[in-house]
Amino acid sequence: QDQLAESGGGLVQAGGSLRLSCAASGRTFNAFYTMGWFRQAPGKEREFVAALTWSGRYTDYADSVKDRFTISVDNAKNTVYLQINSLKPEDTAVYYCAAGLNAGSRLSNYRYWGQGTQVTVSS
How is 56-111 classified by DSSP, letter by letter? Predict the structure, then answer.
Protein backbone atom coordinates (compact mmCIF):
# COMPACT_ATOMS: atom_id res chain seq x y z
CA GLN A 1 0.00 0.00 0.00
CA ASP A 2 1.34 3.37 -1.00
CA GLN A 3 1.60 5.66 1.96
CA LEU A 4 2.93 9.01 2.93
CA ALA A 5 3.22 9.63 6.65
CA GLU A 6 3.95 13.06 8.06
CA SER A 7 5.37 13.75 11.49
CA GLY A 8 7.07 16.52 13.40
CA GLY A 9 4.25 18.99 13.88
CA GLY A 10 3.46 20.57 17.21
CA LEU A 11 2.91 23.72 19.22
CA VAL A 12 5.76 26.23 19.10
CA GLN A 13 6.25 29.86 19.97
CA ALA A 14 6.70 32.48 17.30
CA GLY A 15 10.32 32.62 16.22
CA GLY A 16 10.87 28.94 16.83
CA SER A 17 11.66 26.15 14.39
CA LEU A 18 10.27 22.79 13.40
CA ARG A 19 11.32 20.03 11.07
CA LEU A 20 8.53 18.10 9.43
CA SER A 21 9.16 14.65 8.01
CA CYS A 22 7.34 12.72 5.31
CA ALA A 23 8.12 9.01 5.11
CA ALA A 24 7.17 7.33 1.85
CA SER A 25 6.38 3.62 1.75
CA GLY A 26 4.79 1.14 -0.57
CA ARG A 27 5.49 1.99 -4.15
CA THR A 28 8.80 3.32 -5.37
CA PHE A 29 8.40 7.03 -5.87
CA ASN A 30 11.03 7.19 -8.54
CA ALA A 31 12.89 10.13 -9.96
CA PHE A 32 9.87 11.25 -11.99
CA TYR A 33 7.88 11.93 -8.86
CA THR A 34 7.73 15.33 -7.30
CA MET A 35 7.33 15.45 -3.53
CA GLY A 36 5.45 18.45 -2.28
CA TRP A 37 4.43 20.11 0.95
CA PHE A 38 1.13 21.92 1.19
CA ARG A 39 -0.66 23.55 4.10
CA GLN A 40 -4.22 24.38 4.98
CA ALA A 41 -5.14 26.94 7.59
CA PRO A 42 -8.61 26.99 9.18
CA GLY A 43 -11.16 28.41 6.77
CA LYS A 44 -8.66 28.66 3.93
CA GLU A 45 -7.84 26.63 0.86
CA ARG A 46 -4.95 24.24 0.77
CA GLU A 47 -1.89 26.02 -0.60
CA PHE A 48 1.46 25.06 -2.05
CA VAL A 49 4.50 25.48 0.20
CA ALA A 50 7.46 23.69 -1.36
CA ALA A 51 8.38 20.82 -3.67
CA LEU A 52 11.35 18.88 -4.93
CA THR A 53 12.22 15.81 -6.92
CA TRP A 54 13.95 12.81 -5.37
CA SER A 55 17.12 13.74 -7.23
CA GLY A 56 17.03 17.15 -5.57
CA ARG A 57 17.64 18.83 -8.91
CA TYR A 58 14.27 20.56 -8.88
CA THR A 59 13.09 22.60 -5.93
CA ASP A 60 10.38 25.22 -5.74
CA TYR A 61 8.96 27.36 -2.96
CA ALA A 62 5.99 29.60 -2.47
CA ASP A 63 7.13 33.21 -2.40
CA SER A 64 5.71 33.64 1.09
CA VAL A 65 8.00 31.02 2.62
CA LYS A 66 11.17 30.84 0.55
CA ASP A 67 13.26 32.77 3.04
CA ARG A 68 12.29 30.60 6.00
CA PHE A 69 11.44 27.11 4.70
CA THR A 70 13.84 24.51 3.32
CA ILE A 71 12.79 21.28 1.64
CA SER A 72 15.22 18.37 1.46
CA VAL A 73 15.31 14.64 0.80
CA ASP A 74 17.03 11.60 2.24
CA ASN A 75 16.85 8.96 -0.47
CA ALA A 76 18.21 6.23 1.77
CA LYS A 77 15.33 6.75 4.20
CA ASN A 78 12.68 7.51 1.56
CA THR A 79 11.94 10.62 3.55
CA VAL A 80 11.33 14.23 2.62
CA TYR A 81 11.81 17.01 5.16
CA LEU A 82 10.54 20.53 5.56
CA GLN A 83 12.62 22.72 7.83
CA ILE A 84 10.65 25.72 9.05
CA ASN A 85 12.47 28.56 10.75
CA SER A 86 11.34 31.85 12.27
CA LEU A 87 7.82 30.54 12.66
CA LYS A 88 4.99 33.05 12.58
CA PRO A 89 1.42 32.70 13.87
CA GLU A 90 0.23 32.81 10.25
CA ASP A 91 2.14 29.57 9.63
CA THR A 92 -0.44 27.79 11.77
CA ALA A 93 -1.99 25.10 9.58
CA VAL A 94 -2.18 21.41 8.85
CA TYR A 95 0.82 20.53 6.73
CA TYR A 96 0.42 17.82 4.13
CA CYS A 97 2.95 15.81 2.19
CA ALA A 98 2.06 14.75 -1.34
CA ALA A 99 3.52 12.97 -4.35
CA GLY A 100 2.79 13.27 -8.04
CA LEU A 101 4.40 12.64 -11.40
CA ASN A 102 6.19 15.79 -12.54
CA ALA A 103 3.72 17.63 -10.35
CA GLY A 104 5.36 20.99 -9.84
CA SER A 105 3.42 23.35 -7.59
CA ARG A 106 -0.08 22.56 -8.82
CA LEU A 107 -2.16 20.86 -6.15
CA SER A 108 -4.31 18.98 -8.67
CA ASN A 109 -1.23 17.21 -10.06
CA TYR A 110 -0.59 15.38 -6.81
CA ARG A 111 -2.12 11.91 -6.56
CA TYR A 112 -0.82 10.65 -3.24
CA TRP A 113 -1.43 12.47 0.05
CA GLY A 114 -0.57 11.97 3.67
CA GLN A 115 -2.93 12.57 6.57
CA GLY A 116 -1.28 15.81 7.61
CA THR A 117 0.46 17.10 10.70
CA GLN A 118 -0.71 20.07 12.73
CA VAL A 119 1.58 23.04 13.24
CA THR A 120 0.41 25.66 15.72
CA VAL A 121 2.41 28.81 16.34
CA SER A 122 1.62 30.89 19.39
CA SER A 123 2.36 34.60 19.52
Answer: SS-EEE-TTTTTTEEEEEEGGGTEEEEEE-S--GGG-EEEEEEEEET-TT-GGG--
